[in-house]
Amino acid sequence: MIRPVSFFYLRHGETDWNAEGRFQGRTDVPLNARGLAQARSARNLLAGAGIATICCSPQLRARTTAEIVNEVLGLPLVVIDDLAECSLGVREGQLKAEWYLEWKRGRTPEGAEAYADFLVRALRGINKALEQDGPVLIVAHGGTYIPVRDHLGLGETELQNCMPVRHDPPVDGSRSWQVVPLGTR
Predict the structure, then answer these.
(1) pLDDT digit string (tens) for 46-70?
(2) DSSP code string of 69-112
(3) Catalytic one among 67, 71, 85, 110?
(4) Which of its termini does the chain have fewer beta carbons within 10 Å around, N or C?
């Protein structure tokens, strides 16, 4: 379960591997020029959102995005190791293919993190972030968002790079979270 508190989630800015459709996993690919511009745009969208704490993955692309956003916000920045992207072992740098679906079904590539273990770790990282003073902005990865998406029943929709999304827990007996993107790219 995800702690029932309001929070924001921001997938890091674009990298060259994102643009090419390659899985990055733990490979530390930096933001490209478009990714840097996306982070600056997200910073402007989040400037008046009332965020109290920023939590981010330790990986360069997420941390750089968080630091750019924080240039305006000036908030505590908490690095949480469990927010790191999944390790895909020998499959990092490859394009999406049948191996990815097999990994999700439990067939782990050499040197990779098992899908089920990754989901547990990512959810632990999300909840650790949500223990901070809030509302919290979590800056991490598309994969790290999977347990949020699954627990909130959001389907298979993939987050765009640097599209801030606000999440508000159910109120008045409702079972549904409100999920609202803050802008469009």
Answers:
(1) 998 999 999 999 999 999 999 999 9
(2) HHHHH---EEE-GGGSPPPBGGGTTPBS-HHHHHHHTT-PPTTB
(3) 85
(4) N
Is the whole model's pTM more than 0.85, yes or no?
yes
Active site residue 85: yes
Express each pLDDT in 101-150 by its tens digit. Answer: 999 999 999 999 999 999 999 999 999 999 999 999 999 999 999 989 98
Q: Are 122 and 150 in contact (CB under 8 A)?
A: no
* Residues contacting 26, CB < 8 A, separation 6+: 59, 84, 85, 86, 87, 88, 92
- Taking the C-alpha atoms of residue 105 and residue 97, their distance in angstroms, rounded to an integer, is 13
Q: Domains of the chain, with CATH numbers? A: 7-181 (3.40.50.1240)
Region 153-167 average pLDDT: 90
Q: Which of 12, 14, 92, 113 is catalytic?
A: 12
Give the containing element (helix H, strand E) for 67.
Answer: helix 60-73
Confidence of residue 158 (pLDDT cuts 50, 70, 90): confident
For residue 139, count CB atoms less than 10 angstroms from its CB and return exposed for 0-12, middle for 13-18, buried for 19 or more. buried
Q: Is 141 a catalytic residue?
A: no
3-state secondary structure 117-142: HHHHHHHHHHHHHCCCCCCEEEEECC
